[in-house]
Each structure stands twice: as C-alpha cells, then as structure tokens.
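Hello,

Our lab assistant flagged a job as stuck in the queue for most of the afternoon. It eventually completed. Since we weren't sure the result was trustworthy after the delay, we are filing this so someone can double-check. Below is the sequence as submitted and the structure that was eventually returned. Let us know if re-running is recommended.
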Amino acid sequence: MALDNTSQSLHAETLVKIAEDAGRQIPPVWPLSSSVAVNPYLGQSTQSLAATGQMLSRISTARVTMPRSWYQQQIMDGQITDTDLAGALAACSHGIKPETTEVLKLAAKGSEKTRAPLPTVADLAAEQTGFDWPGFVAERTGAWAGGYFDAGQAMWHAPKDTGTWAAWRAWATADLSPQIMGLTTFRAHVRATPLAAQDAIAQACAILGLSETACASYFHQLLLGLGGWSQVARYELWKAELAGTTDTTLTDMLAIALTWEAALFKAFKAKLENTWFAVQLTHAEPAQITEAFVIDEILQEAGERAHQRQIAGKFSPRTAAKTGRMALQAAFCIDVRSEVFRRALENTDTGIQTLGFAGFFGLAVKHNACGSDVDELRLPVLLNPGLSSAETGTDADAARADNQSRWLARAERAWGRFRQAAVSCFACVEATGPYYAARLVSDGLGQSARTAPGMQSACPQPDMDTGAQISAAAAILQAMSLTDGFAPVVLLCGHGAETSNNPHASGLQCGACGGYSGEVNARLLAGILNRADVRAGLVSHGISIPQDTVFVAGLHNTTTDDVAVYWQDIDLSVYAPDKAQTEAWLKLASQSARSERMPALPGAGSHSDIHTRAQNWAETRPEWGLAGCRAFVAAPRSQTGADSFDGQVFLHEYDHHKDAGAGYGVLELILTAPVVVASWISLQYYGSSVSPDVFGSGNKLLHNVTGGIGVVEGNGGMLRTGLPLQSVHDGETLRHEPLRLSVYVAAPQEAVTAILEKHPQVRALFDNRWLHLFVLSDDGQVTDRYSGDLTWTKEHVG
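-- returned structure --
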C-alpha cells in the first residue's frame, strides 16, 4: 500500500504550531543544582486521569494508576470499603462506567490486558532488521545533548551560538556512528535537510507521509521518547516565557527526532511502508476513552477516599487563642517534613506556638552566595525574582571573606582541570594518590567538618527602601496570619537537607526556594522585621510588634532534624533573647523528631546513625524527603495540632476570619501558589511511583551525572528525570503510596468558589481531579466536597 503524501501540502508554519502544542504536553525539568519537583502530567491538566491514561498508552509505556492487583489487595484488607467504591463510582462523570460496585470488584480481581504503544519508525526498523535502532538513536542523541546542554561539567564546551538545530546538524554530519551501524545514507540525509528547523520538520513530515491530523499524537510521542532531553528543552521555554520572551529549543529537538525517523524510513521503506501507514491512521484518530481506563480512575479515587476518611478524623474544632503571651513562636515551611518537627517542638512546652508558611517566606530572592556570581533563584518556580541579595555586607571582614572565597574557588577549578585534562590526569593520580587516600577515608567515615550553610549574613542588593520593606513585611505577616500576640522570640525556620555523594541533593531542599535551602529568605525577613523604622510603619497596617520581640532565622536540617539558629544576625545591644531556653527546646524537639523518623529509615538504629547517614557516600536513602505526602491543609493550628499527621500533610497557617475583610486575598494566594507547588510535589511522587520507567529516574546505583544537569543510567542514552527508585521504594515495597493530593481549606465555600472561578488554570486541576478539594468548618468537620464545574457536594468525609 502506498503512502498518502498529503503532508506535501502542509505549511511549515502549520506544523510548527502543532509542534509547539505538542511541546506543551511535556513537563520542564530543572538542573540538578536547583532541581524542584515537577508535575509530570502538567500538560494534561485539562484532561481527566482516564483520558490521560488512554492518550499516554498509545504513545508510551507510561501508566497513570497502579496495577489492578494493588487496589484488590486494599479491598481485601478492608482499607478500601464499599462506601469508598460507591462514592468514587457516583462521582465519576464518564459516560462509560460500571453500573455497580460489584462490577468494580470483579474488575479489580481480573487480569489486565497488555497495553503496547504505537511503534515509531525506529521501532519498526528494529523489528525488520533485528538491530536496536531506538536504543542507538537514544545513545547518539544523548551523546550530543549531554555536551550541548552541558551546564559546567565538561571541560570542552559545545558551541551554542548557532542554535540547537544548527548545532546538532553540524555534529550529525560529522558523526560516523550511523554509517558504521549500517545507516550509510544518514550523513548525506542530514546534509540535505534545510537550515531552518521548521523547514526540516516539514521536510521530514513529507518523507514520512504524515497527515496533519496524525502529527499532534506523533509529535508528542517523539518528544516523550526523547526522555529528559525534551524536558530540558521545555525548561528553556519555561524560563523564556517567565521572562516575557520565547525559545525554540523544543521544536528544534523535535526536528532532530523527526530527522532520525525520516532517515530510517528512507533506508528501510520497502520493509515497513505498509505497517507505518496503518500506524499513521491510528495516530490520526482521536483517543477514545475505554471502560478499562475509567475503571482504573474509579479504583484510584476509591483508594484516595479511604485516606480522606482517615484525615477527616484528625481535625479539631477551632479554639480561641491561648491566654497569656507565648514564650516562643516558630514559623516553619509547609513542607510535610516540618509537621513532625513542629509537633515535637510544641510538645516540649505549652508556651510554644508553631506556624506553617511557604518556605521562601514571601521574599522572591535572586541570591549570590559568598564568593559567587551565580544567581540562585530562591523562590517558587512560578514567580520571577523581586529582590536581589548577596551573602556579603559592606564591612571589611565581609569583603575579605568574599575575596578569599573567590580565590579558593579559582584554585579548586584549576585543580579540577589539572585532574581531568587529557595529559595531566595521569600525573595527578601518581602525585596525589596518598593525599586522596587519606581524604577518601576521612570523607567515607563521615569525619569531614560539618557547618550550617550561609555563615555570612544576607543583605539586599541594593538595599530596599523603608516603604517597600514596610509593605512587604505587612503582606507577609498577614499571609502568615501573624498580626498580633507576638512572643519575645519569633523563629523563622527555613529548611535544607544534608547529604553526601547525592546528585539529587537539591531535590531534598526547599521546593519553595527553587531547590535551595531556606536560610537566606528567613534571614532576610528577620532582618527586615527587626528594623525599628519598619515596625513603626507596620502600626499603620494594624500590626504592632512589641519592643522586646526579636525575629531570628534558623535552618531545619531535615536529614538529621538539627536546627541551626543564626543568633549572630541579632543586635544583642538591642535585644536580649533567652538563647539558652530556645536552644534547649529545639534540642529536645530534635531528639523527639529523630526518634519518630528512625524506624522508617533502613539501617538507622540510633540518633548517631541518622547523623552518619547524612555523610555516608554509599547511602541511597539519607531521608525519605516528601514521600508519603497526601494532603494540604490551610487552617488555624488549633484545628490541626491535636493529632499526628505522620509527616504526610502540608500545613499552612490560615485564619479566614482575619482574611474576610481583605476580600480573602490570602486564601487566593494560598490556592494559586502554595497549593499548586504542593500539587507538583505530590504528582511527581505519584508519577515516579505508578510509572517509574517513564516518570522516574531509575536506580541510583546506575546513575551517572551528565552535563551537570541530570543523570543517565549506565554510560549514556536518554536523560532520566523524576525521582530515583530509592526515593519511593525501600527495596521490598513502595514507601510512597501514590495518591492525588487532597486539599482542605478552613474557609467559606463561597469564597473558595469565587477564587476558582477567577483562576481557570487552578480550577482545571480540581475539575479534572488532579487535586481533591474540601471545605473545613470551624467545628472541625469536613462539610463540602468540590464536585467540579464550580459545584459542591454536601457531605461529611468520615
């Protein structure tokens, strides 16, 4: 059967528009140095779970739910009840769905059909020739992309000034590997491609005989097949659009993938032409949701309803504020790991109050560390920086420290180049072997010096004017629901993670701080709130801070549960905080939190083991990160502090009574920023658990860092993104139960509805059940469940 060359008439502009739309189906990925959790289903937020599963099953091996046996086991164990199944079945809006829960139970018991994605041209060529063309294309693409996207790891850098497509085209015309493997016409084919990527896309589509209706699905498949490299390109587009510009790297990457497909098609056309024509026809057909995917979606929601019942029973009625002044108030990031420490700290003394707030503390900071000109974007990735800061002040000591750090960094870079250079690397081993033996032993035994990050104070550059500081301070304190009743000591505690030999270390840092630790933002805010002129200005905003109240920054090490307090930032001639008592409380809380976490950490039998794990080069699980996250709560602490949430819930302080007069502006901020960031975290863990082969980064033991931007498994191939297997699995079972996040808001239902109506992109997450939404009453009852399309169901989850 001959191919229909309808694509000959397709304009390049039309194809580029389809390519751009396909590119937006791909999630971005941040570099290892500042990695943040990303929702792998970001491009499918306007679709349901069943529709996403159906679509992805045509073009990849990705799953969107666990195997049926997973839910069957929970039904047998009594965790998923008939009530959960009935509720999920009734809430399902798909026309094709089982009629009864008994049908659901039978489906859970049954075996699943094997779901094979549509083959690419490379897959078809492999079937016909017996050679692994998909693996070869992945290896050659990775070999080029690792150098092109390199972020400082390589000593010799690939040129980037010509653009992505031009850079690859020049590289591919000189690469003899395809010719050696039998694709003898490849270099000539590349030389014959147009100089512009959009024209190359049109040429490849003409060779492949693609129709316009088939392109969207096929383009998405090819981009998804590029693995993390397409996500790196999507990140470039994300950065550009955040800055108000655009970027073509993603469509250039598609042109590369299409060029490989076209070259393989031309080489093996006679053997695969008819099969490829049938594949095209399937790509051109809309993906119709089948009952199998609807059943999967219902079973997943039934499992989530089971957990929602457990959470609903942990809320308490709202109570009035405690009489008398608190001795210590401590604000922590809403990160689920903070919930354990907050509970431990509160239990040490009745005079301690804790709060939850986004870990960047309302300051979107572009920061330069001591001796560095690298811009560290310590802010949620949804935002642009609004403040610059540096770790050096204007005094002589700070300038001397900055200068010394720069010289040390230059010396280290020079030494690194000497060790890695083609000639001197051999002499380096011979000359410095004994020194490195001692260092290896020292580091391997965890004997290296340990210091808290950021010993120099952070200063705005340039300094903010007083009016701007007053406005920022008022907005932040109102968002924290901390506008009165200030304690003598208010601790603003960011968080970070101490690990060793861990390429994914930044993924354990603060997601609200762009994959960095949170001490910079905490120290900047503490400095602002300690200024006398700022406090004087806050009075006009209805906020009166006592003269003896001092704000001090801290850093919670989530790996060891130690807290470092930056007392050196405080002017002790003005303030006299009870340092000894504060440190004693923090120490007791650290011990309690470690004791609670210890049983879940493989091989941790004592407090000292936890500290040792943080510096153990061979430790694949220094901590569990945010594994287990399942809910987000915006409510007063009095409604969440009576029970344990087991380190599985994001807790944001929120008082709707204080917010009502401002038109629920704080609630709007919570639903459009922290909730969205939390959903990215939750869905990254979800995707890495249900589909580790596509949305996870694989086995840490096989990882090699490439380009300083990501990891590959083994010695090459496609970039792997998402969470390593060891971050969600303990070797025997999953440690993260894949659940879509449940969001509980203690606020009037009408206020929540108005915000969803105002923000359609946020609403889409709830309408399509990527998130569940509930309203919590002042008496601690879950009274309303969001049903979609701005409607609610009155019910008690419990």
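-- support follow-up --
The delay was a queue issue, not a problem with the job. The result is valid. The longest strand covers residues 489-496. The two ends are 61 Å apart (CA to CA).
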